[in-house]
Amino acid sequence: MSERLHVFLAPQKRGLIAFTPDLRRRLRLDEPGAQLEVMELEDGSLTIRGVVPVDADQAWFWTDRWQKMEAEADVDIAAGRVTSFDSVEAMLTGLDS
Description:
Strand content: 5-15%
Strand order of the largest sheet: 1-2
Oligomer: single chain
CATH topology of the largest domain: Pemi-like Protein 1, Chain: D
Distance between the termini: 53 Å
Mean pLDDT: 88
Largest sheet: 2 strands, antiparallel
Radius of gyration: 22 Å
CATH architecture of the largest domain: Ribbon
Low-confidence stretches: none
Shape: elongated
């Protein structure tokens, strides 16, 4: 893994850690609802990642299955395998044929 950033952050009395404004921006911590995901790896190192939670009613879009279907649709669109219609009626007629 390559290093993009190497800093020392000193925890305050209650365990709080302050990030620089640039780092907060890069990790998207300035967005509403932002969180930090902290993972301890087997070697004892920590991975910290900025996360902006997804609303529960939008979570379906980010499932592996749905993302696979989105990728397939992108391939079809890029290859020109799409049909456009001028109206709903024309689309329904096209589906029937």
